């Protein structure tokens, strides 16, 4: 019982910290206004991540675009690597490798799909290496 509550609390904490860090970011504020009905908090819910609406994917693209990680349907790999290097990770080289790999895949049919595919591609490595 105790461990169950601890696990739920941990998850809550992770999402909260994650959200708190990102909500400081201007990009999220801009995109929450631009794409009505989607917020980063909503996007991060597992059921939304697994089965996102078109708006959720475009919200994600909007955030990437505001942060200069993508321009149109194109990755800005150098900026992505810069952003990764500016954060603390359990294993930085593993994160860099994942970003290199995921940003080297061919783009999807449009920028919203590409943003979502990049997100999914880096997600496992991100969760493995994020420092709470
Ligand atoms: C990364 O950090 C450096 C040094 O603080 C800074 O000049 C640069 O703008 C940062 N890059 C990004 C993408 O945040
Ligand atoms: C970090 O990741 C790299 C690349 O995946 C790997 O070669 C290395 O062994 C890892 N280092 C640690 C300390 O886990």
Automatic annotation (TrEMBL):
Keyword Signal: yes
Signal peptide location: 1-20
GO MF, one annotated term: odorant binding
Superkingdom per UniProt: Eukaryota
InterPro entries, A to Z: PBP/GOBP, PBP_GOBP_sf
Keywords from the UniProt entry: Signal
Pfam short name (any one): PBP_GOBP
Protein name according to UniProt: Odorant binding protein
Organism: Gryllus longicercus
